[in-house]
Amino acid sequence: MTFANPVIPGMHPDPSVCRVGDDYYLACSSFEYFPGVPILHSRDLIHWEQIGNALDRPAQLALPPSTPSSGGVYAPTLRHHDGRFWLITTNVAPDGGTMIYTADRAEGPWSDPVRVPIQGIDPDLVWDEDGHCWCTYAGVWQVRIDPREGHVLSAPRRLWSGAPGAQAPEAPHLYRIGDRWYLLIAEGGTERGHAVSIARGPSPEGPFEPCPANPILTHRGSNHPIQNTGHADLVQAPDGQWWMVLLGVRPGGGTPGWHVLGRETFLVPVSWHDGWPVVGDLQLGTPAPAIGDRDDFDAPTLDPRWLSIRSRPDESWSTTDRPGWLTLHARDQLLDDPGVTFLGRRQQHHSCTIRTLVDGRGGLAVRLDESHHYAVETTDAGVRVIARLGSVRHETPVLPVPDGPVQLRIDIVAAKDGDGHPRQEPDTIRLGTETEVLAELDGRYLSTEVAGGFTGRVLGMYASTGAARFDWFDYAPA
């Protein structure tokens, strides 16, 4: 079977998958964005649709302004047990911690959190044949817990940490397969050294023997177009075929290669030999024809794909103040500020165009974090482009425009493979109005390799002063 990889493009890292009958459900990390933990559904593991966000209420997810970019919600595990969906994740924010949420249906509503007092990220949930629930987390450590009350019922114990001396043993998942228990982990860090390893034992407590072929998946030291492969989860299809979802990146440009879309979700087949999983070839595949995406803001609620930064107070947005328009009410004025009123979506294609019609003082932006973003915005005098790169902020001269709504546009154009020189930028970002380009900027500065962190680009709208109203937002892959 051939299919397009990544199966979920754009910033969808740390995938966790479960199957219920003929349906698959998947959850990903969301970091400083609200709502948190996107939930996606598929019938074939290839075509995915976002059906909601698990953490869509302030009572479920607190991300105060002091939460740094790439803080927030890390690496959920999604499971279905005893007729319910279970989600465990860690909020790496002030007063955060590890939380368990439950739901009757994957699209929600999800419960308020149950706090689990463990010190670690990437928590996993599994139940043994006696009904005991085990939580394994980065390290790789394990405790037995009461998932309904959040009580820890045993002292933490070390299980197995991959190759001796390997960096960052994390992302553990435990499975009962046949008469053995398998412990799947990531190691090597989530950068170019990322890898997937596995061990097996007689019980969820081990002892665990490592697979002699470890790591069972890695692209480190290769020129493969998919890099940083790791943080995997296994699932079995109704026909008995096993599959693995995992994160990876698609670097572009010259050296060292810059990935700009974030860590994405990939799919690869798995076979079994001598009681060990063997991972098939991970290929990019042939993508389906790109389809545009437009929101005219005619609905009273927002599509679940829309993201805000840290919070989305009810008073900060509306689609009914001016029917058919999205109204954003400014809190902080700048994209540099942690509380800016922003609504965006993940960039999912290396080349794309975003456009909007804005009435008021607001803009259109390509955001990586507070210190790394490009934007085109309206002012009292016209339209300007702002580039924030680390401690440097630059503004272009203002382009006068007629009074009234203004159509803003950003084109992102990927560099061609094999073009240029060792420092070839991954893409070029052109910002301006529908009729005039005000700036053409190097895209490498809005990449993880430059800015650091764990996220990818988010494209969207923001209010800078008062109320900014947006008639529509159009995303068009090239």
From TrEMBL:
One of its GO terms (molecular function) is hydrolase activity. The keyword Hydrolase applies. It holds the Pfam family GH43_C2. The keyword Transmembrane does not apply. Residues 294-475 form the Beta-xylosidase C-terminal Concanavalin A-like domain. CDD domains: GH43_XynB-like. InterPro entries: ConA-like_dom_sf, GH43_C2, Glyco_hydro_43, Glyco_hydro_beta-prop_sf, Glycosyl_Hydrlase_43. Keywords: Glycosidase, Hydrolase. Belongs to the glycosyl hydrolase 43 family. This is Glycoside hydrolase 43 family protein. It comes from Actinoplanes couchii.
